[in-house]
Amino acid sequence: MSHSLSKVKVAIIGLGYVGLPLAVEFGKKYPTLGFDVNTKRVAELQQGHDFTLEVSAEELADSAYISYSCDIDDLKSSNIYIVTVPTPIDEHKQPDLTPLVKASQMLAKVISKGDIVIYESTVYPGATQEVCIPEIEKNSGLVFNKDFYAGYSPERINPGDKEHRVTNILKVTSGSTPKIAEFIDSLYRSIIIAGTYKASSIQVAEAAKVIENTQRDLNIALINELAVIFNKLNIDTEEVLKAAGTKWNFLPFRPGLVGGHCIGVDPYYLTHKAQAIGYNPEVILAGRRINDGMGAYVVSQLVKKMIKSNIAVNGANVLVMGLTFKENCPDVRNTKIVDIIAELAEYDTDVDVYDPWVNPEEAKHEYGIELINQPKHGHYDAVIFAVAHNEFKALSSSEIKALMKSEHIIYDLKYMLDPQLADIRL
């Protein structure tokens, strides 16, 4: 393949929150194949429906040059392969590169001389060249930077955000040779309105991605720790943050649960690599410990308040409002609301979980949680507003109180209610 935009045939491997919006944009300009091993997902997209709600039916229809497949043979006609598979952590909080390795092994069967593989999945610095490329070389017989090339362009998708879309978020790019780096940059530049930033190496691009969310994680951890301190001092954390926020350079972070596919995961990729080279990252891991412990802290606060209010904890009916990792989107990946639900179970409470954004089948499959269709009136001893969905913000005080027993506790985790209504705020 001569590296010319006029001859580009793109394949996107993995059609989730990251891959699909990217595939749709490339499909407006270049012959594009959206590939996923999930046959149900491919069938839905072929019918013009995206369950993640990231791409509308109109946007799917506007992507004139796109097709979808779960047949590996269909990949062979492509020459640019963009990998957007998940990079989760395992139960020991270690990076799980299995999806990335499998995708690389699969590409080894279809890649041709001159082709380029670009990774977008979040990894630790060095993973592309240390883990992924060797899999392609070993299984294809092709030589890296002679027969095929690579790049890394970290995803910056923000699920549920209709303002910051793939085309208007600046894109970091990189390539395995200076010439390939320039070509990859020009490829992304042709679809990204906000422009691109060409990093000096693949490792720099990998590292830039992994620290974006590590920085956010640490900032939230600091505010979470401050919230714990202020709660002990009987000071309203939100009022403190509002007052401090009057200074022009005070960062507007709020306390809360840190879940999702990025912020609660990416720091572990960086700390894994740091430990592998003999450095123990104290600050990053301290932040992770604080944030991972917030679910248990929330429940401990609720239980103490219930006991002080003479509400029996054992057998209490508790309503958890929201399951997604963030508001106004159906994304339940690595949601920390499950920590609250698991902790409540330790106290033998009866928990109802309500979230109008979540597919009940997915909640059952991923977490074994049976969602309720509607909260019950006059049924609950306590309610936790865990996710700031617009539907929850729109509830009036009387509608909320109608769900509760006469003696009850309302916990506003996201500062979405009238302060007079909430018995506890984080």
Describe this structure in words.
Helix 4 packs parallel to helix 5, helix 7 packs across helix 9 and helix 7 packs across helix 10. Strand 1 (10-13), helix 1 and strand 2 form a beta-alpha-beta unit. The longest helix is centred in the middle third of the chain and has 31 residues, at 202-232. 38% of the residues lie in helices and 13% in strands. The chain is an alpha/beta fold and 426 residues long. It has a 6-stranded parallel beta sheet with strand order 3-2-1-4-5-6, with helices on both faces. Strands 10-9-11-12-13 form a 5-stranded parallel beta sheet, covered by helices on one side. A two-stranded parallel ribbon has the order 7-8. It has 15 helices and 13 strands. It starts with 9 loop residues before the first strand and ends with a strand. The model has no long low-confidence stretch (mean pLDDT 94).
List the strand order in the largest sheet. Answer: 3-2-1-4-5-6
How many helical elements?
15
Q: Regarding quaternary structure, how should these chains be classified?
A: single chain
The major pleated sheet works out as:
6 strands, parallel
Order of helices and strands: EHEHHEEHEHEEHEHHHHHEHEHEHHEE
In short:
By secondary structure, this protein is an alpha/beta fold. 38% of the residues lie in helices and 13% in strands. It starts with 9 loop residues before the first strand and ends with a strand.
